[in-house]
Amino acid sequence: MIDINRLQKTSGIIGNTEAIQEVLEMIVQVGPVDITVLITGESGTGKEKVAKAIHKSSKTTHELFSRLCV
């Protein structure tokens, strides 16, 4: 299990609002699971930080992280 405080420090996701805590909890839940995750949001909201945090908490963390822009 991934520690949420450690995840927040290593991912660069800042803030302590309820919304940020919910995002961090979701990252911890989906990270270890082999599923596709769609991250949406306004420009500049940190979608890439969330994607990297999910990747770091996944089973494939040793593999190259690549971004897909559509």
Would you kindly provide a written description of the structure presented here, covering whatever features stand out?
With 70 residues, the protein is an all-alpha fold. 44% of the residues lie in helices and 0% in strands. The protein contains three helices and no strands. α1 (4-11) crosses α3 (47-56). The mean pLDDT is 85.
Distance between the termini: 32 Å
Mean pLDDT: 85
Indicate the percent of residues in helices: 40-55%
Taken as a percent bin, the fraction of beta residues is: under 5%
Number of helices: 3
Q: What multimeric state do the chains show?
A: single chain
Tell me, briefly, the overall form.
globular
Please outline the major beta sheet: none
Rg value = 12 Å
Number of strands: 0
Q: Which sequence of SSEs, written as H and E, runs from N to C?
A: HHH
- The assigned structural class equals mainly alpha
Low-confidence stretches: none
Features of this protein?
70 residues, mainly alpha, 3 helices, 44% helix, globular
Quick structural summary:
By secondary structure, this protein is mainly alpha-helical. The chain is built from three helices and no strands.
How would you summarize the topology of this molecule?
Blueprint: H1 4-11, H2 18-30, H3 47-56
Helix pairs in contact: 1-3
